[in-house]
Amino acid sequence: MARDESTRQSADDRSGRDPQVAEAPRVVVRRSARRKRTVTAYRDADTIVVLIPQRMTKADERVYVEDMVAKVLARESRSAAPRGDTALADRARELSERYLEPQLGYAPEPSSVNWVTNQNHRWGSCTPSAATIRLSDRMLPMPSWVVDYVLLHELAHLVEAGHTRRFWRLVNVYPDADKAQGYLEGFQAAATLGRGSETPALNGASQ
Known about the structure:
Zincin-like, 43% helix, YgjP-like_metallopeptidase, alpha/beta, elongated, UTP_pyrophosphatase-like, four-stranded mixed sheet
């Protein structure tokens, strides 16, 4: 199958603004000789891949790519992760009250919940002694149900520092636990194959 691939740089990338905040992903356009009319797009880690027919003109490509990227971002925004530390802390409180309070009789409350930019080898971390939770900003483009799972995972570390049986009982009440774990494992596998580098994981609490 003949395929031509090109990469587009968004206006936000060129302006030097933070692409995580501006939601300006890397865009890859792939041309296929087998594709006659249809145009599709999907998210692959930090990239939006747009599939177009081999013979599409450059003018049509620009129009379709812009439209398909907008559709992917719009779809993601409807189920996006909380933006900003305040929204993230509010979501952590909601998850604690919904999933942990019925099991414990109280809702564990962190002293702070923050997005961080320097956490490249784990999705989330918790320091029980300080009751602080940090999530990697690499999760910002991910679906909200994945971020919710990681938040609940770290909230459970406020109760159980290690990955004990009790810890997993607290976490596994989350209905999308298996689905979220599979998503993160798939993301890690794709990143490892694509870049050959170490990728984040869910680790135990730090002391």
